[in-house]
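Priority: medium. Attachment 1 of 2:
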């Protein structure tokens, strides 16, 4: 008697009911047919709750492996071919594998399928119909999901900071996650200050418990994607459909827009080069056509250059990278903070440093108290061991726990030390910048130089390898509505607006300048833009 296998499958929806497609019904029909055709069923493979639109099914794979390894298997019984596959390619792939092992595919409800040319044609037609039916079902499902989005619902798993819940009426809705939601909101708040990168945000929130599913720090790309997701302001966008969501927003549109503006500013001055670093990428523009300059490396000349991206139209020549960077560096000599502003800066930096220092010291005291508490509990456990109150096994278990707690506390103490070191480094850079902008830029690392460029300059227009116009940054326009900043005494400081002449006497539109900055004109001297 030839040996055979039976394969049964139900999808999640089919699994909820009985009838023609239930697992028991399939097994009963296939077992009877195998007996009638004089086959001995040696194993039944089942894939409950599995779709037939792909081959990623455990028992299907196990069955095919069994056919390859056991040469005594001569047939596979299924109730319908759509139990095996609803995809034409998958169906033909499975059938080809079975034919290679000389295993017949026998369908209880489709007896006309055999190994003849006609049978193969009918088999292929039925497989195509199965796939078409699967496509129609998928389309119906997709239309339903699209309609859900148009009505403000969300068809997928809730984004980070939200959770999928079922309301009292049995409807699936989205609610704010009480634990993660506030951390997402904090991510927007931190980034909206303009003082932190996505990496900084990820690091800061990691310390507060905001982590990936594997417990790791969130990747920069994930943080950026989160900060760009309009779902957090109450909008749903899916497959080109946009609508006002039914869920509660986590952040205000004002904060969200501020984040997008800051992100665009960061991207505009980002160095997108992969093989070479060009410090001035994003800042240099052609004075003839207005297009940006790009950086190029010429290994044969052992040199790097900047050039206009549209130079072919006006033959603007290449300029050596070092030459242009030196010219830009010289422009920093035109910037100088007033003595009054430097005094304010020193006071403010000192105040913030001492404030942070006090915070760190409090944190260290708390940790040391925790450490003493653990050590005391460890000492008590040791005494109980000597007195025979606890067993050696209990003491060993407690010892490991105490050791882990002490190591964790020590790690936190070490982190506080690193934070203090970082703070004093920040203080050094801030004071250096305040006292001598040019020197601070000259001695800064490339990444910090990039930040200084974005802080003080909007662009440099180049012609014939010379800077013909240097445009100051408008970075302080974000506080233009308030026209004030906080000082150490927390008193408002108003800004003056002024038109200045820069470069070859090109007028610059009135713009908001940082308090206490002096700008040197081409005819000599400094114009003091002190607060009033």
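Attachment 2 of 2:
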């Amino acid at each position: 008697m030839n040996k055979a296998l039976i394969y049964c499958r139900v999808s999640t929806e089919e699994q909820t009911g009985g009838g023609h497609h239930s697992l028991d019904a399939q097994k009963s029909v296939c077992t009877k047919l195998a007996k009638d055709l004089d086959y001995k069923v040696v194993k039944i493979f089942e894939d409950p709750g599995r779709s037939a639109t792909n081959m990623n099914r455990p028992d299907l794979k196990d069955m095919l492996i069994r056919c390859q390894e056991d040469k005594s298997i001569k047939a596979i019984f299924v109730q319908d071919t759509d139990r095996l596959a609803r995809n034409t390619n998958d169906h033909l792939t499975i059938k080809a594998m079975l034919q290679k092992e000389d295993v017949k595919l026998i369908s209880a409800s489709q007896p006309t399928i055999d190994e003849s040319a006609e049978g193969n044609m009918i088999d292929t037609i039925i497989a195509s119909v199965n796939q078409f039916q699967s496509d129609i079902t998928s389309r119906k499902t997709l239309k339903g999901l699209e309609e859900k989005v148009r009505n403000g619902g969300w068809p997928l798993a809730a984004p980070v900071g939200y959770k999928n819940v079922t309301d009292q009426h049995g409807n699936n809705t989205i609610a704010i996650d009480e634990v993660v939601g506030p951390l997402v909101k904090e991510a927007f708040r931190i980034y909206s200050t303009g003082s932190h990168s996505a990496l900084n945000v990820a690091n800061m929130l990691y310390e507060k418990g905001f982590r990936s599913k594997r417990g790791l720090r969130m990747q920069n790309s994930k943080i950026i994607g989160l900060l760009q997701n309009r779902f957090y302001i109450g909008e749903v966008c899916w497959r080109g459909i946009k609508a006002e969501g039914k869920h509660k927003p986590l952040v205000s549109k004002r904060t969200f827009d501020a984040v997008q503006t800051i992100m665009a500013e960061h991207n505009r001055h980002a160095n997108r080069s992969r093989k070479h670093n060009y410090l001035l990428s994003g800042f240099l523009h052609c004075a003839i056509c207005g297009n940006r300059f790009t950086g190029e490396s010429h290994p044969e000349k052992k040199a790097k250059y900047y050039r206009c991206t549209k130079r072919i139209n006006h033959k603007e020549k290449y300029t050596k990278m070092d030459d242009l960077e030196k010219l830009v560096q010289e422009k920093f000599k035109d910037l100088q903070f007033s003595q009054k502003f430097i005094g304010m800066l020193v006071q403010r930096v000192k105040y913030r440093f001492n404030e942070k220092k006090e915070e760190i010291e409090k944190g260290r005291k708390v940790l040391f108290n925790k450490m003493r508490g653990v050590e005391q509990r460890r000492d008590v456990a040791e005494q109980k061991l000597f007195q025979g109150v606890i067993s050696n096994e209990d003491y060993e278990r407690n010892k490991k726990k105490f050791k882990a707690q002490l190591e964790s506390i020590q790690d936190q103490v070490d982190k506080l030390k690193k934070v203090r070191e970082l703070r004093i480094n920040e203080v050094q850079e801030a004071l250096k910048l305040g006292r001598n902008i040019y020197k601070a830029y000259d001695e800064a690392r490339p990444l910090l130089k990039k930040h200084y460029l974005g802080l003080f300059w909007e662009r440099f227009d180049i012609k014939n390898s010379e800077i013909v116009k240097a445009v100051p940054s408008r970075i302080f326009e974000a506080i233009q509505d308030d026209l004030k900043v906080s000082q150490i005494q927390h008193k408002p400081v108003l800004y003056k607006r002024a038109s200045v002449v820069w470069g070859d006497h090109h007028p610059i539109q009135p713009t908001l300048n940082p308090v206490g900055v002096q700008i040197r004109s081409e005819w000599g001297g400094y114009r003091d833009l002190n607060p009033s």
